[in-house]
Amino acid sequence: MAVKKSTKKVAQTVITEDKFYTISAANGKIVEVADYNTDNGAKIQLWDNANAEWQQWGFVRAGEGVYRIKNRFTGKMMDLDCSGVTDGTRVHQWEGANASSQLWIVEPLNDGRCKIKSNLAGKCLDVVGMNTDNGAALQIWTDVGGDNQLWTIEEVTRKPKTSAKAKAAKAKAEEAVETAASAEAAAPVETAPVETAAPAETAAAPVETAAAPAEAAPAKKPARRACKPKTAAAPKKAPVKKAEKAPAKKATKKAAAKKTEE
Q1: 34, 124, 184, 254: which could join 149 in a potential S-S bond, CB 3.0 to 4.6 Å?
Q2: pTM of the model
């Protein structure tokens, strides 16, 4: 006699934006940011549930059934490496951006589990090599309906633990970000003198040009100022030529007078 399998539907966790959740694989291990790393590009992997903040995720609604999945500890999003869409593209974390590589579709199943698919690639969140060990990396892969592509999303109800080492690492990372931001803000100040130097030299030219008409009669239009020094230079040469000819004439008269005396 054939035994009918139960088709009873298991209730899904209702996702809301003001709460945090764990994302569990079929073997009970949960999705986390490796080594509570706060850097862009940090690995996302499976690990035993330690009720730690870097193992918990917020779902930021971006559409009907579409979310950005944000790590509680690092504040960064689950993201596709280099916006890849091929099988085997690794999943890592990255700062929030208006990018399709950070959009995920949650597709509920009847047994309380769900598939998490990339909105960009249309492929499932998947465990590399169907690995079940701590440290197993995540990727996207074509939907094959395997257990390594099925996930359970559960609300966090206990107060999370954060080790002193993790807090120190996070504080150091935040300090580095603030320092980098300050350096970027200071950069324009350093380059500003160079940018203003060129206009200063350009501005100097009109001053030199204005000096020439200052010796001549003042004029209202700049175009005329430039012309007056050139026309004023011609009369200065004329007297020099006359001065050279004058002595020649006087010498001729003296020579004539000597001839007359003789």
Answers
A1: 124
A2: 0.65
